[in-house]
Amino acid sequence: MNKLPVVLLSLILTFFLLNNSFAQNDNANYIIVIHGGAGFMNEMMPESEKAVYYTALEEALNIGKTILENNGSSLDAVEKVVRFLEDHPGFNAGKGAVYTSEGKHELDASIMFGKDLSCGAVAGVTIIKNPISLARLVMEKTPHVLFAGTGADELGKKFGVELVENSYFDTEKAYQEYLRSKENVKGTVGCVALDKFGNISAATSTGGRTNKMPGRVGDSPLVNAGTYANNNTCGVSATGWGELFIRNTVAFNISALMEYKGYTLQQACDEMIRNRLPEGTGGVIAVDKNGNYYFSFNTKSMLRGVATSSGIFETKIWHDR
Structurally, how many domains does the chain consist of? Predict the structure, then answer.
């Protein structure tokens, strides 16, 4: 038998499959969800103030959406979106981070890639302009997961990330909250994305709680508590009373309920947020491997948004709007 036609057929078939694979990626589904903190925002606030938040959420979504629809990775999408929110003074992450009881700023962030469970985090950084980007460098450039305090700041210097004076993070709004010593759960930012290649990534960044004790670390930089991503299940970013999210390992348990108990994304999120946590303590945003998304929160408000390849583009603050 002449083997040449068989070889040619094999080459043609391989070429077809490869090109078909690329075509499927171009037309594949993607989804991105974001949050800007859960809490108790007043629905009677001036329309101009509401517009600031809605506009910021829309701009953040468009950054991630553009990356994903152009075949970018979910990891790039979540990092860029969170960087934007860190730079926006309206949120408790980066510029606008809340004050510690000493009147300073200590910032936390984490990022995770669901394809191989790689992750990186920083806690208590004081001079790093964009903690989420340093967290990604921890993931990609070191054998470790979490750097904290002075060690994290020094690592940022080593990697050449943008540094700022601690006063850069000051805003009048955060300062007034510090003076009032309010303990509202709000402001943390996060993003979860599923890209066209089926990879899920999650990222979270925060300035912590207003008037927190110096050195206090919440759930945001802790993989499994405030951030989690696994291609086999889902990606999660949390916001709220960090100590409770740590004690209940909220982000990982949402994934575990899906993997071991067969819960849907909605069932798993609601089990943790509505059944395991007290009212008024926070919420999560999540995306599963099939492109389903869900927001679950037990507070009055949670700044949030979603954009999908099917054309959904929404932002909300309260339960109905």
Answer: 1
Residue 291 lies in a domain: yes
What CATH number is attached to the domain comprising 186?
3.60.20.30
What's the pTM value of the predicted model, to 2 decimals? 0.90
Q: β-strand 118-125 against 146-148: which pairing, if any? A: parallel
155 inside domain: yes
Residue 264 designated active-site: no
Averaged pLDDT for residues 94-102: 94
Strands of the chain (E only): list them. 31-39, 107-113, 118-125, 146-148, 189-194, 200-206, 227-229, 234-240, 282-288, 293-297, 301-308, 313-318
pLDDT number for residue 178: 77
pLDDT surpasses 60 at 89: yes
- Among the listed residues 78, 81, 101, 102, the one whose alpha carbon sits nearest the alpha carbon of residue 91: 81
Q: Which of 14, 66, 126, 188 is catalytic?
A: 188
Domain that holds residue 62: 29-318
